[in-house]
Amino acid sequence: MNRKTELLAPAGCYETLKAVVNAGADAVYAAGTRFGARAYADNFTTEELLDAIDELHLKEKKLYLTVNTVLKELEIASLYEYLLPLYQAGLDAVIVQDIGVMRLIREQFPGLAIHASTQTTVTGAYGAKLLLNAGCSRIVTARELSLEEISHIFQTTGAEIESFVHGALCYCYSGQCLLSSIIGGRSGNRGRCAQPCRLSYEMFASRKEAETRKKHKEQYPLSPKDLCAIDLIPELIESGVHSFKIEGRMKQAEYAAGVTSVYRKYLDLYESGGFCKVTEQDRQLLLDLGNRCGFTNGYYQKQNGRDMVTFVKPSHQKQNDSLHEHVRSKYLDTENKEKIYKHINPEIIIKTGKKESLELISNANIFNAEANAFLKGALHIFRNALRDIQRELNASSFVLLKGRCFSGKTYVLCSLAEHYKKRDVFYFPSESFADEEVVELVLSS
């Protein structure tokens, strides 16, 4: 296959987001303060999400927002206000379970990609087609599918497919489990799963045996081992999987970054034609980062089996503190210094209705800075400059924008979209014209 496979990493907080990007993630999925299926993660404030969108786009990476709980009727109205600033800032996609939410996003936020969450439980081509027709651009498959079943969905529908390759597995189909809600009143479909599958249970052959026999040794028959599909990279890609998804928004940044780095290594090897058997050293590295009684490759090559369940203990174990310290020093404690991509022009000219009214926002030193630490400052400076000229924009009959930044969209246009509803907007990427003579020509026409 010629298309590049995406490596999608989790982030439960901003520190983890930076770490997985430094470790090689192509995209990051995260949640804000509402509507995410990990309500007990640190999650992101709206301001942090806006910063994350800017920072990732400057590095030509993407941010996907989880909006994957089932919403109550009274919450629908607040969803629009929640998503609006992120949409204007260029959010790449939302991950959704609720069909009603899909419809609202499709109608209110045109152009915003919708990814059907694994909690929609897509297990076949018919389900995939239904969600594609509902406006989804990507299907996150149910974790219970085999390679053959995924391939059938891809071959039948041509859908862009995302599948989990590493991390925790649910005992039940994601999105269909009601056990947490029934036992403890905490619904997994509302982001509050209490993980009853990780609790210990006693097993008896009959009710009579349970009533008469002494207490058995506690076991964990509902607790699956962690998924690890590092050996199946070629098969997954050949089956049509476009995005390799790592689970772990509740995990430490060291775990997320370390796992991301290993999958980055072998994805790159595969795409360069040099994929080979995973080394024992790297296999041990993944185990040391964290596992539950070892790993399983899930349902990709078999339907089920006792070796998929922990039985003994359910906790997620890390086995090598020095490794975690190494990962932290490599991906968390140091800033990767890199140049901003050349196609981003450091100069944006905003020209409004009056010819003499010209605002130039330019700071080549900041926008060409090699250290990431400067980038966040640059973004804040840019936003403050925009606030200063909002009044002038409001009074203008038209707006002319020159320059391009932040993932090919003019940040000004996105941030101030509400101000442009009743006037003409002329936008040209910086390559379209090079001097004021062309600007004057456009204005005069």
Structure notes:
- This protein has 2 domains: 327 residues, TIM Barrel; 98 residues, no CATH class.
- It is globular.
- Helix 6 links the parallel strand 6 and strand 7.
- Helix 10 packs antiparallel against helix 11.
- The strands form 3 sheets. It has an 8-stranded parallel beta barrel, surrounded by 6 helices. A 4-stranded mixed sheet has the order 14-13-15-16, covered by helices on one side. A two-stranded antiparallel ribbon has the order 8-12.
- It is 37% helix and 16% strand.
- The protein is α/β, with parallel strands linked by helices.
Helix content: 25-40%
The value of Rg in angstroms is 25 Å
Q: What fraction strand?
A: 15-25%
Order of strands, widest sheet: 1-2-3-4-5-6-7-10
Question: Which stretches are low in confidence, meaning pLDDT under 50 for 5 or more residues running?
Answer: 337-445
Mean pLDDT: 76
Task: State the CATH architecture of the largest domain.
Answer: Alpha-Beta Barrel
Largest sheet: 8 strands, parallel, barrel
What would you call the shape?
A: globular
Indicate the structural class.
alpha/beta
Summed up, the domain count is: 2
CATH class division of the largest domain: Alpha Beta
CATH H-level superfamily of the largest domain:
Aldolase class I
* Helical stretch tally: 16
Distance between the termini: 48 Å
And the CATH topology of the largest domain?
TIM Barrel
Number of strands: 16
